[in-house]
Design brief:
homodimer; alpha+beta; Uridine Diphospho-n-acetylenolpyruvylglucosamine Reductase, domain 3; Vanillyl-alcohol Oxidase, Chain A, domain 3; seven-stranded antiparallel β-sheet; five-stranded antiparallel β-sheet; globular
Chain lengths: 466, 466
Amino acid sequence: MNAPVLQPAELPTAVTGALKALLGPRLSMGLSEREQHGRGESYHLGLPPQAVCHARTTDEVAAIVRLCASHRIPIIPFGAGTSLEGHVGAPYGGVCIDLSGMNRIIAVRPDDLDATIEAGVTRQQLNAFLRDQGLFFPVDPGAECTIGGMAATRASGTNAVRYGTMRENVISVTAVMADGTIIRSASRARKSSTGYDLTRLLVGSEGTLGIITELTIRLYGIPEAVSAATCTFPDVASAVATVVSAIQYGIPVARAEFLDGRTMLAINRYFKVAFPETATLFFEFHGTKAGVEEQAQQMQEIAAEFGGTGFQWAAGQEELNRLWHVRHNVHYAIQAMRPGARVWGTDVCVPISQLTELMRTTHADTQGASFFVTMVGHVGDGNFHVGLIINPADPAEMAEATAINDRLVARAIALDGTASGEHGIGSGKRKFMTLEHGAGIGVMRAVKQALDPLGILNPGKVLPDP
Amino acid sequence: MNAPVLQPAELPTAVTGALKALLGPRLSMGLSEREQHGRGESYHLGLPPQAVCHARTTDEVAAIVRLCASHRIPIIPFGAGTSLEGHVGAPYGGVCIDLSGMNRIIAVRPDDLDATIEAGVTRQQLNAFLRDQGLFFPVDPGAECTIGGMAATRASGTNAVRYGTMRENVISVTAVMADGTIIRSASRARKSSTGYDLTRLLVGSEGTLGIITELTIRLYGIPEAVSAATCTFPDVASAVATVVSAIQYGIPVARAEFLDGRTMLAINRYFKVAFPETATLFFEFHGTKAGVEEQAQQMQEIAAEFGGTGFQWAAGQEELNRLWHVRHNVHYAIQAMRPGARVWGTDVCVPISQLTELMRTTHADTQGASFFVTMVGHVGDGNFHVGLIINPADPAEMAEATAINDRLVARAIALDGTASGEHGIGSGKRKFMTLEHGAGIGVMRAVKQALDPLGILNPGKVLPDP
């Protein structure tokens, strides 16, 4: 098996010299930049790489990979640093390749409803660019993340119930493999049955099988009508049951976000707003004017059945934007409840028939926690996040949070669910991989060994130690 | 590299004895059954396996695989034998595992809109079973194929423009790997970001990486309203442009099938009907009553812009069923135009902006052919089939057909398309793999070598010889 690559005390001067010759000032060895590149946005402690390379082209990435391969030096791809499970840490040292400078929008093809972009393009950048053409890219994890990073972690977010995740919305990627070979995973055809699905193999592989440098992604027409609403519920179960019922009924809801009372409290404080501080759903509907009205009407009826009250419709685009701005920044709102703390966001996902029960038991399980605990969810997908607002430097709090998450993941997997709906594995969830995948881990290991025989691509991530 | 496995003159008696002990009368060595299992429905000549095993359980499949692995004997999985590119031939001999007897519907979960089935369940069987529950499985290649076979070839068909292909509709598979290990590729969660996407790796691998024995698939509610229509056009280009325009406009058409004038002629003769013998579109719309009416109205307007006339709406379920029965049996209708002939169905797929031009040049390229040539297409996906009605035993016709297909595939790949939208590679399209995938072939070979080091899983398929 490809063993973790041991960290030398320092990078060989042959390597730093060659990198400097290649990149000039775009090679950085300074501590603050290395520290900034060694951690994401979560509770994980930083593990800085030994050097940061700001790449500008796929060929440059390939040259860096070939150089590192020849010295067996770990390579950690980096986008915007918004990941949540320690994906960008360098536990074995090595070279970080920062792709954020590869932010060209190469082609937008309205006739084919697709675009080709470099990996460092952010979704905000792309959507701002597309707006005038009446198009948008729907996958929306909230953060100001790069689309390459979203592909690498198989991200999703609030729109997935309607538009799918990165799995469904990446048509093709250009990737640099562990030996420096550049491949393109597929053509631009919308469907193909010519061989192994290299696109889906790379999407979600978190930089451990190859480094995604360009992507062709699906676009959608901005809907004729968009309408959004909030609605409050007496408890978690009734709010979740409303969404589950709507999905089963076939309402093509575009977004259906659950936020618990504590999250609403945090939002009110952080944004200086005054939502009711109880279980709440944020909805969005996309379609024709008639279609959106029909969907909204059906949804109100279902919500009423489960005790939902106070339907508030966003009046106009500005109010709608404000609503989703609030939802997208929940992470920061709940973090602000405790100055200096970090949010440990859990991420289980289960079949939706199991969701109400799992959220109820989880709510009960966290009532006695010694820290502030919130719950939000992309409930239309069966996916929710418990926010544990902790001090990662406090061993007792870390132990308590770890135990909560362990119990939650075990319950989710027992319900035929998954340890991570959209955040990925990184270093943080490796311990759950065998429980979830059983013998499938052997297949994953064989693929990793075949495609990265030296074990240099983002070591210490995704797969548990053998 | 895993070299093709050489065919021994006969299977070792240790193997046939062990198979007989395991399967009793479900092991067949008779020539007629072997011949029947050595060919699909296309022009490919049959290549019979040396034995046919009728498996009933995943454990039985695993036992057969372990036995074959220990003697390095090729294994060819078989569903309904409807494949079109020589997928089931045994060029190196070996053992066919017929999964059609594994046809249990294990669970249907209306609350989760999913079902778990054995690989031998056919889509007709499943949909008949689901109808009373108001559910259906949309992927529809037309033939009476098994859902396991559809997954193995990443099939799609008439509904893909709305519901996606097997890539989007398989949630998880149980598979027997080359050493007999049984894995389950994923949980039932609708989304997950826990490691490599083994589901998508196995879907489309044509039995060369593992043998799919069970699947969990997505279901959909039968739409409140379904409406279907035919419409005729002056030429190929105007019909195709109508669909491309509708897709770009965002009309969620459920089916948009093109049939050329010759196909309509063949249909009229075979089904004793009287369609106009000109370029025709078959449409279907799914939704609420209001939604379907809105879609149909928009589509009529677009069709009229491109010279479409004679919109005929199917009146009632029976007429609608008859329409799609006709479309599903086009293969047999065109085959019947020349008794004793076989249909070579090409299968390129391109970005839809390129489709009109490619279909026009292809139409021109085949006008002088010495045999009957038809053209049908899932044009909403950019995918179409040229039907070459040939005598595969005539070397001149085979050479002519080969040249037509070679030119067509080269044009499609040059337009950033694919050699196969939905039929797969089998043995027939291996020669195009390097042209389409370039350096990606090396990645595919590495994955194959890692997961099937002995090269026993369906040798001679998918990947070109090294």
